[in-house]
Amino acid sequence: MRVKKIVSGLLACALVATTVFTGNVATADAAGQEGHKLAVDYDFSKEEEGKIKDKSGNNNDATIQGKTNVAFDAENGVMELKNANAYVEFPTSIMDNLTDQEKFTIETRYARSATTGVHSWLFCLGSNPQGTGANYMFYCPRFDNGPVRAGIKNASVEKLFSTARMLEDEQFYTVDLVFDEGTIKLYIDGVPIQDAEGNTSLASGYSIVDDVIAKGCKNNVLGYIGKSVWSGDTNFNGKISSFKIYDGVLTDAEVQAPYQEKFQTEFENAMKVESILGKNQSESAVKYDLNLPKTHGDLPITWTSQNEAVVTSEGKVINPARDTTVTLKARTESGTLVGEKTFTVIVKPADRSGLNAAVARVTDALNGGYCNEESKKDLQKAADSAAAAKSQTEIDRAISDINKALAKAEFSAEYLDPFGALADGFNPAPASLNLLPKQISSVKVKDVPASVKGTVKISYESQDTDVAVVDATGKVTAKNVGYAMVVTRIEAKYDGYAQEYYTLVKVDVNLGSVRASANAGSLAKGKTTTVNLVLPGGVNDKNAVITYRATGAVSVNKSGKITAKSAGNGRVYVKVAMGGKSITRTVVVKVGDITGASTVKAKKSIKLKVTGISGKAKWSLDKKGKKLAKISSSGKLTAKKAGKVKVTAKVGKVTMTKTIKIKK
Q: Residue 392: enclosing H or E segment and its boundaries?
């Protein structure tokens, strides 16, 4: 029976360095790896007679099984295993190219397909498939639709790297599995995988030769790419761009060297400023303690503060007397990989506004004679404690203490419930106001009983200040056409309970006097004019929406510029909208043009005429044209000799031109 082992490693996904596959497959060889010979290095750009060729020169070619389900991307050097029938066998002769068969490093780069099964191994050593797999070493990108799993097993006991680390489908990762006389290290994109105890080495005590190869391999097959030795497991589906076995053990530095930039980038991306703010809303307005993360996945984070007197390395904030900028640095390490990020925060003085308001409530209660002598003593004590509050935390605590003291105090009925002393149906605000732009009115509260006036605060607010504004005395000033709700608020000083009264302010204007015309009612084709728009008082192009639309012989832009396109009548529709109202005016523009042939032979005549506008045309030729042709008052042009002539027809204030080519 196969036993699933659950181990609680906590290497977070934030540490994963990923490359999304977009056609080009990024690869990286660690600095110093050139000093290690390769026992095998497969070329995944193509297959040759069912083989994957070994580029190392050691002739350890691999055999493809189910090759009709294997595809190759020659340009990017990628092999894709497309379904459960496809995998690759690599030979035991690889071991002959190892100086020490108990010291080697497997490195592969892959992207798992989302169609891959839940127990699909990427690679393994050990080639004897059976119902209860034994004598193998393996790497599985996802186990039971969960995290990475990898490890080694002799005939009976499986020893695992098993973490909470989840890898994404369809993304490329580089895996390094280092075997050193039974001790195994596993890296994903240079980051070591830890076991449940936080160790980055798995001391299996197994021999790869005696416990795996001698007992787990047969038919000269050392292992598989894309297949498990558990016969019930499905095969791996996905892309593979590299599979190498190095002769010797790669060090942390050699494995990790290509990933420093990625590690730094991932740390920077994971350490968002939002994650350290705690109760604070912004790094530019820090008042409360910061929430500085202690770990990045499994890795500890060390914090340093440039000003411990204001923000400690633990994130405790000591509010200064004035705005103070403090720089904090976070640092994490994994072997030779180092991630650092600097945060700059502005620590604000403690905000006493809430406390001042609470103290004001106490002062009102003490000075107004609204509470008994025993309550006065308790309130005075709370007020004295509030005066000693310095930090924001102390201030918040003092506010809480005052509120508790107020809640316990005994007050007069008017102070506790000023609204109960008001007459039934009391409404100090008019239900509505109808105003013109710039007109002034008032919603000022009146008729509040003298016994209540000292127990309440009165304020005013406009909910749409673009339409109307209201000042602290209740004076309303209309600004633009539209509707605004003005709120009159009466608030009890005792507990802050408030009632609100609403006045609908309507600011309106009559759009009926909108007028639109064209600066020129007739145009020659190609000429322009503009819309002349007359708006009523209170309306302008800033508080009204003005749009233009044209049909027929003209076009118009968003600024009201009209362009004559062709002979005939054109219409421009000018729409003025404001405060839910609109009106449309139509401007008619006539466009004139000279029609007739554009070419004529010498000694021949053509008839030209003006269309689009009415009226008698006055015809003429340019100075050069008079030597080449003549034109009658009715538009008949008689050519004399070859050349180009410019014909002008003027009807009223509209001047049109046309160029005629005279051929021999």
A: helix 392-408
**Which of 249-258, 517-526, 579-588 has the weakest average pLDDT?**
579-588
pLDDT digits (tens, 9 = 90+) for 478-508: 988 889 999 999 998 878 889 999 999 998 8
Report the alpha-carbon distance of residue 235 to residue 224 in Å, rounded.
Answer: 10
From first CA to last CA, the distance across the chain in angstroms is: 104
What are the phi and psi torsion angles at 404 (to 5°)? Answer: -65, -40
Residue 359 pairs in a beta bridge with none
Q: What is the DSSP string of 618-633?
A: EEEE-TTHHHHEEE-T
pLDDT value for 433: 93
3-class DSSP state of 202? strand
Strand 183-188 to strand 171-180: parallel, antiparallel, or no bridges (unpaired)? antiparallel
Which residues, at least 6 apart from 146, have a Cβ–Cβ distance to it below 8 Å? 166
Task: Report d(CA 99, CA 101) in Å as an integer.
Answer: 6
CA atoms of 104 and 98, how far apart (whole Å):
7
- Residue 116's identity, in one-letter code, is T
**Phi, psi for 174 (deg, rounded to 5):** -110, 125
Cβ(405)–Cβ(382) below 8 Å: yes
CA 21, CA 19: separation in Å to the nearest integer? Answer: 6
Residue located via tokens 């095998």: 40
Is the distance from CB of 134 to CB of 212 less than 8 angstroms?
no
**For position 371, what pLDDT does the model report?**
76
CA distance 99 to 644: 93
pLDDT tens, position by position, 370-391: 777 778 888 888 888 888 887 8
pTM over 0.70: no
- H helices of 475-609, in order, are none
CA–CA dist 65, 31 (Å, integer):
34
